[in-house]
Design a protein that fits this description.
By secondary structure, the first copy, chain A, is an all-alpha fold. Chain A has helices at about 5-15, 60-65, 75, 80-85, 85-100, 105-115, 125-135, 145-185, 195-200, 200-220, 225-245, 250, 255-280, 285-310, 325, 335-340, 345-350, 355-370, 370-390, 400-415; strands spanning about 185-190, 190. Chain A has a single domain (about 5-415), classed as Farnesyl Diphosphate Synthase (Orthogonal Bundle), CATH 1.10.600. Chain A contains 20 helices and 2 strands. The longest helix of chain A is centred in the middle third of the chain and has 37 residues, at about 145-185. Chains A, B: Its cofactor is Mg(2+).
Chain lengths: ~425, ~425
């Protein structure tokens, strides 16, 4: 079974799927399917995309045309780093988050704040994306009654959008706490996992507590569509985790299943929260869907690279990563692609990868295959879809909007080129 | 330290507490504190209550005055059983619940529906309370434009109130699933616990899934106050479970701490959902608070009796219950009351009740104390508060309202006299 078939099949299942709300939907992407010869790869990020119908100059090129300033980037690189651009606001969000999750019961308070303390807040990737998305969608609003009112309205909207970033972090950390219990993990973000330090019970309870606080914070926004989006993201996290637990051979070896699981586990939270940002801003369904598509494809690209790095680590050589997935019997994109080239790998995978000798054989096949390369290419493909979504947003001449859209594009590149 | 002091202290802490929303609040109860000589006991449920100010004929008597028909009850007992009265609606809710929690991922679907299958749905106590509360608050609404519109509006309201009953069950079952993982329980509702049958991972995930579906269902009601109430109940469940895990001697031996924990673990969900029913009906703050007070006191009475039954089981003799709490080192009201009479019991409890010999000593003290009796009295006191809340509702001459209010009062008696 070709992975491209799987992908097409997956896409067509998505199309059927789109009858249900908040699911994967690429239908608004300006280019539905890219031919294999023209997919960009991370090694050559400026390579031009051509659609099967031949009429499309790829998103990255469009992006380069639109953002001419890119040529002078080096001088301003530091000031335009997506994370630096919103550093102050990220600190504000972190402070407010810490005050939002104070529990009455002392033990619960310690558990809940564990991953929100200074220094262990993680990369803050999601809040960074969401703050830039908020600015990127800051399209003109009807002339307000007074400047004061205008200023108040903008500020209020921004605060509400910051709340989405906080809620997203709460949901994300809640899922980490529960996942670490499920996986019996002992480290997270460079420190002992909460289950290791305070036990499984407090980890489960702290996760539940964060979910309830997220729900209360959501309710305070007074927008039931946004509540539904974010609750759906929680459900998807659970779906993804459950799908990953499967032992059924046909599912473990299916690219379609893998991509669906990856959407649920990684992409749904960021895509739904991007959409929530748009909805709070009162954006149209089309713009909200573009925000969703950006988040979805960024999330998929992120996880694909994550899965590659599990094999390669910071170097590009196979076997230098932690090999955590394969040692846990989790089959990811690189192995699925390798299996396409070497169907005999399927038998090894079907045995469950519990035997270290089987893992070695699988790594050998992976090494002589195009698995890693193809997984990177697929990540690049999704990164392009993400860029396309940004490019398809209504034009704006606002400098801040411009900077934020560029930051969102830069983030897709950071996702592709990251080494950890 | 007297338990009455603890109770007063607890009440005064509640009063301070009431600055925060949705916490325990007895302040609307017509009689703030009942003197010990006049508290009713379950053995003599018609005994009259007298307030410390001497001016109050207890709620049960008021209730008897208002519900004169009680004298002819035997003939209609069957038809007026609170559970039978709403049997059809309970089935409807159970069916809808089953369709609400269908998960896309098959394994998750099996786990999530585990306690919603026919025969293992439990007593359905909460939905029964909530359906009667909905009818009890069915006060006249302004004359509608047409009979059709009136009928549609009522039906729509009823459906929304049924949703609260469904959401309450989802939250309740989610908390059971997580609690059973935390307690490593092996049975629940007469069958194997989900963690035993499908493992801890799926139990945690199914709990999270139910919480996310509850949140989505809440959002669909479009009332953010209701979302906040129900999310607060989830948080309280977590608070209660965490408080129960404490090993601090001063907390384990404090009546105040015990009652606070009991409110969080048992009473908050039913009190907040009763209030949600009132809010959906567009009731005033006063009526909503009465609904809340009913649920709160019913919940406290329920748990106090539960704690008594853990010692007595179906008989009234000590030691015939499962003794599950004391064997897990959990200190409940009967032991706390016994400790008041026999302060030397404190030392035994402080050692953690891990040694079976200590458990035997504790049971010996409990046997010669008034602990069980006093716990039952406290339950009766709270049952009376619950009845008072119903009695304080605005008068109505609607027969269905009358029947439902009587059912709510009957439920308080069932709580006191239940043997399992």
């Amino acid at each position: 079974m070709s992975w491209r078939w799987a992908l097409r099949s997956w896409r067509s299942s998505r199309a059927r799927f789109n009858g249900r709300s908040h699911e994967m939907n690429f239908s608004t992407a300006p280019c539905g399917a890219l031919s294999s010869r023209t997919s960009i790869s991370p090694e050559n990020p400026t390579k031009v995309l051509v659609c099967r119908d031949g009429g499309y100059l790829g998103a990255r090129r469009l992006h380069n045309i639109r953002y001419q300033h890119d040529h002078d980037r080096s001088s301003e690189e530091e000031s335009l780093d997506p994370f630096s651009l919103v550093a102050d606001e990220l600190s504000l969000i972190a402070d407010r988050l810490r005050s939002t999750i104070i529990a009455e019961v002392p033990k619960l308070a310690s558990a809940a704040e564990y991953f929100f303390k200074m220094g262990v807040e993680g990369k803050r990737f999601r809040p960074t994306v969401l703050l830039h998305m908020a600015s990127a969608l800051n399209m003109p609003i009807p002339r307000p009654v007074s400047n004061d009112l205008f200023s108040n309205l903008s500020e209020e909207l921004r605060t509400r959008q910051q709340r989405i970033a906080e809620i997203t972090e709460m949901i994300h950390v809640a899922s980490l706490l529960h996942d670490d219990v499920l996986d019996d993990a002992d480290t997270r973000r460079g420190i002992g996992s909460l289950n290791l330090v305070m036990g499984n019970k407090l980890s489960v309870l702290a996760g539940d507590f964060l979910l309830s606080r997220a729900c209360i914070a959501l309710a305070s926004l007074g927008n039931t569509e946004v509540v539904t989006l974010m609750a759906t993201a929680v459900e998807h996290l659970v779906n993804g985790e459950t799908m990953q637990m499967t032992t059924a051979a046909d599912k473990r070896c299916s690219m379609e299943y893998y991509l669906q699981k990856t959407f649920y586990k990684t992409a749904s939270l960021i895509s739904n929260s991007c959409k929530a940002i748009a909805i709070l801003a009162g954006q149209t369904a089309e713009v909200s869907m573009l925000a969703y598509n950006y988040g979805q494809n960024l999330g998929l690209a992120y996880q694909l690279i994550d899965d590659v790095l599990d094999f390669t680590g910071t170097s590009s050589s196979l076997g230098k990563g932690s090999l955590s997935d394969i040692h846990h019997g989790i089959v990811t994109a690189p192995i699925l692609f390798a299996m396409e080239e070497y169907p005999q790998l399927r038998k090894v995978v079907d045995r469950g990868l519990k035997d270290p000798a089987d893992v070695d054989v699988a790594l050998e096949y992976l090494g002589k295959s195009q698995g890693i390369k193809r997984a990177r290419e697929l990540a690049a493909e999704h990164a392009n879809y993400a860029i396309e979504a940004i490019d398809a947003l209504p034009k704006s001449h606002d400098a801040n909007v411009y900077i934020s859209r560029r930051a969102l594009v830069d983030l897709t590149h950071k996702v592709l080129t990251r080494t950890k």
